[in-house]
Amino acid sequence: MSATASRNVNAGRRQPADHPAQGDEQRVRIRAARLRLTTDRKLGKETPSWVKQLAKKPL
Asked: Which residue has better confidence, 21 or 24?
């Protein structure tokens, strides 16, 4: 098998759960929760407690 063919074998596969991208996904969720908090506050809506807890986590 050539070097090019072996590189394409893993193309499109999901990353393992312990991959650093997992932390990136968590940071995105935290930022989204913070945005929802701000939006809900400006619209006068109640934010669910799980969103508030997520927004409190450090990036």
From this structure: 24
Determine phi and psi for 11, rounding to 5 degrees: -65, 130
Residue among 55, 2, 59, 12 nearest 47 (CA) = 55
Please give the angle made by the CA atoms of 24, 11 and 6, to the nearest 5 degrees: 130
Distance between CA atoms of residues 17 and 2, nearest Å: 29
Residue in 36, 44, 14 with CA at minimum distance from that of residue 52: 36
How many C-alpha atoms does 3 have within 13 Å on its Cβ side? 0
Q: What is the pTM of this model?
A: 0.65
27-44 pLDDT, tens digit each: 999 999 999 999 999 999
